[in-house]
Design goal:
mainly beta, Metallo-beta-lactamase, Chain A, seven-stranded mixed sheet, 4 helices, 18 strands, about 15% helix, globular, disordered N terminus
Length: about 250
């Protein structure tokens, strides 16, 4: 019999509320007005977000290595966000399975060209996509010598979603770029960590100290050893939650 419990955890003003024991791929938070928002760790950089009857999908992919996500069993998405064109973020099959008549696909210029559709957002753009959901497109790129070709500056997006007052930074594939100093008041951050494509663990820690989210989810981390990350950021007051984003 599943053990039921009530959990109210306040982390620097952020309330995480759960009414029952949740699996290690699900995290539930409360928004400013007390609504629940759920984050499902699907795989690598694919995140499913549920909020107030809405379905939000981030970089959905149907298959990565030996892992398969059956999007046909999920509701049609209200919003699909795609950060860039790489196969572990951009999957035409997943987008087709999740798309319905009312789905809004939000992406960068390159992916919209490849799909022949989509609402294009460039770095620096912002949009109020519903009464209580705002999206900002922010830079995501490589800075390390010899790595810039993976994610050149100006092409790809990260996204900041403000959902009923809760601010969520989904970084996309990036290193600890200077523009992160402009990202403020983040409640939840998803930061990538794998070489040579995104950040090292040390870079991720530097990025976290700049952004200072209340809760940090490392993602896109493949085989990177993150075991010491929670301890290294504990003194900064940043809660680290490691989920199945290999």
């Amino acid at each position: 019999m599943k053990r039921i419990f009530t959990c109210l955890l306040t982390v620097l003003g952020l309330t995480s509320a759960c009414s029952q024991q949740t699996p290690d791929n699900l995290d539930v938070f409360q928004t400013k007005s007390g609504k629940t928002i759920s984050f499902h760790a699907l795989v690598h950089a694919s995140i499913r977000i549920q909020y107030d009857g809405k379905e939000i999908e981030i970089d959905p992919v149907t298959k990565l290595g030996d892992k398969t996500i059956d999007y046909a069993t999920m509701p049609k998405a209200d919003y699909i966000f795609v950060t860039h064109e790489h196969f572990d973020h951009f999957d035409k099959e997943a987008i087709a399975l999740l798309s319905g008549d009312k789905t809004q696909l939000i992406t960068n210029q390159r992916c919209a060209e490849m799909l022949g559709k989509g609402i294009v957002m460039n770095n620096g753009d912002s949009s109020q996509i519903s009464v209580d959901i705002k999206v900002e497109a922010v830079p995501a790129y490589n800075t390390t010598e010899g790595h810039q070709q993976f994610h050149p500056k100006g092409r790809d997006n990260g996204y900041i979603l403000t959902i009923d007052g809760l601010r969520i930074y989904i970084a996309g594939d990036t290193e600890d770029i200077p523009e992160m100093s402009e990202i403020k008041d983040i409640d939840i951050a998803f930061l990538p960590c794998n070489q040579p494509y995104t950040m090292t663990v040390d870079q991720l820690i530097r990025a976290a100290k700049i952004i200072r989210p209340k809760v940090l989810f490392p993602y896109h981390y493949s085989n990177t050893d993150l075991s010491d990350l929670p301890n290294r950021l504990k003194k900064e007051g940043i809660e680290v939650r490691i989920r199945h984003y290999e």
